[in-house]
């Protein structure tokens, strides 16, 4: 038997928190973080622009808001977490899409432990295939695998085959 969620509807997740709405939240968050990096506008103005210019009906807007504001708030901590795994590259050498994806995914790995690390990595890789430079998804996958092994060590170790 399913119980009603916070909106009074039956189901496993509250409205706005499905895999598809989270995927769209990540999609827009990556674009918004890219814009933040390139234009230097405040995240508040970027968020307002995205909410006006895009159909947010099928977007987990709370998740979009959290990550969009969380990345700049914790930027130095986030970058310090994944930077050791940038093999033969420095942070400033990364293209803005790769930077946005690594920042967003590392935020999720550090601050959203309710989201399985494999989901975080898969979503970032998927967005890299769509928006990133050729083969950037392989680089992002490698960096995030190593980042997850440190940030989510118990979860990663539990998922390793003996």
Fold topology:
Layout: H1 19-39, H2 43-53, H3 61-73, H4 75-82, H5 96-111, H6 117-131, H7 136-151, H8 153-159
Helix pairs in contact: 1-2, 1-3, 1-5, 3-5, 4-5, 5-6, 5-7, 6-7, 7-8
Based on secondary structure, the structural category is mainly alpha
Using only C-alpha atoms, the radius of gyration works out to: 16 Å
Mean pLDDT over the full residue set: 89
Distance between the terminal alpha carbons, to the nearest Å? 36 Å
Which descriptors apply to this entry?
single chain; 162 residues; mainly alpha; 8 helices; globular; disordered N terminus
Describe the structure.
This protein is mostly helical and 162 residues long. It has eight helices and no strands. The protein is globular and about 50 Å long. The N and C termini lie far apart (36 Å). The N terminus is likely disordered.
Brief overview, please?
The chain is mainly alpha-helical and 162 residues long.
């Amino acid at each position: 038997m399913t119980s009603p969620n916070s909106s009074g509807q039956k189901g496993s997740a509250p409205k706005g928190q499905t895999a598809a709405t989270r995927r769209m939240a990540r999609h827009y968050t990556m674009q918004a973080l890219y814009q933040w990096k390139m234009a230097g506008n405040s995240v508040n103005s970027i968020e307002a622009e995205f909410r006006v210019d895009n159909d947010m009906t099928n977007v987990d807007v709370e998740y979009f808001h959290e990550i969009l504001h969380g990345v700049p708030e914790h930027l130095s901590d986030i970058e310090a977490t994944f930077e050791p795994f940038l093999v033969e590259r420095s942070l400033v050498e990364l293209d803005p899409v790769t930077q946005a994806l690594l920042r967003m995914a590392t935020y999720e790995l550090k601050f959203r432990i309710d989201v399985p690390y494999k989901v975080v990595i898969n979503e970032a890789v998927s967005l890299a295939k769509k928006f990133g430079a050729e083969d950037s998804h392989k680089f992002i996958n490698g960096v995030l695998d190593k980042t997850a092994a440190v940030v989510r060590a118990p979860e990663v170790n539990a998922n390793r085959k003996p």
